[in-house]
Amino acid sequence: MPIQEEGVTRKLADPFDYGGGHINPDKAADPGLVYDIDAREYTKFFNCTLGPKDDCETYSGQLYNLNLPSIAVPNLKGSVTVWRTVTNVGPAAAAYQAVIDAPAGVEMFVEPSVIKFSSGSKTATFGVTIKANQWVQGGYTFGSLTWLDGNSHSVRIPVAVRTLCVDHPAETYMLIQIQVLT
User: Fold this and answer.
1) pLDDT for the residue 33
2) Considering the domain boundaries, does residue 157 fall inside one?
3) What GO biological process terms are annotated to this protein in UniProt (predicted)?
4) Which of 7, 59, 89, 112 has its CA 20 to 30 A from that of 147?
């Protein structure tokens, strides 16, 4: 039997239901890369979302802008670029290659696709561009972005995307009516 969620609906489980899996303590002790975030980022997110302040002019207020070890885009129309910064906590000289498993219905690009670290550089910032291929009003689809160093480190983050063709489902009905009338 496929795994089902525990709620009243008993729908098939998805990554929101079953999470990231089990923790491997040996690998957790040597993760290779970490996604750092501090309280200032959360404070800025909440302050700029609740009411724009002076330092909010370039801040979109989207949750996917937080430097979390996951990406969730709940309202993709067209394309969006999400930025993340990783810190190397492994060997000083390291290079990681991006491996993309794009969610169904979208294309994903990572720039740069290779990040390199040396004793002088411990952090790297990269952009993940997610572009809708289908114009459907749908549920979430799931994928991942994994950074591989060719040795023992595999740093995977989940990606969840929900594409929208319109902001509100009622607009879909209006669009259909307009097309029928013209």
Assistant:
1) 95
2) yes
3) proteolysis
4) 59
